[in-house]
Amino acid sequence: MVISLDRYRRTRTVKASVEMTLGERIELTRQNRGLSQAALGRIAGYTQQAISRIESDEVSVSPTDMALLARALCDAGLLCEYCDRCPVALQFRTMDKPIKPVRA
Most-buried pick from 2, 31, 54, 87 (CB within 10 A)? Predict the structure, then answer.
């Protein structure tokens, strides 16, 4: 799906990702993918109401929930922003790269 940034800027206030809350970033990513809250909920295993509460920052998101949402949205950046140092994020980031053996 190709999104025209000029058209997007005319219809919405674009915030820098630094200024965005986690919920706003999830909502923007979902909208860019052309998904409704209900569709994202079905993919990730949540209800539409749960997605709405996450996007409005009414509830905190656990690392497991964030991993499910990032996978459903095909956006590893969401997970990396959420917990840049957690093992789940590190593994998610290396999925496209060869895994190096860990020296003991």
Answer: 54
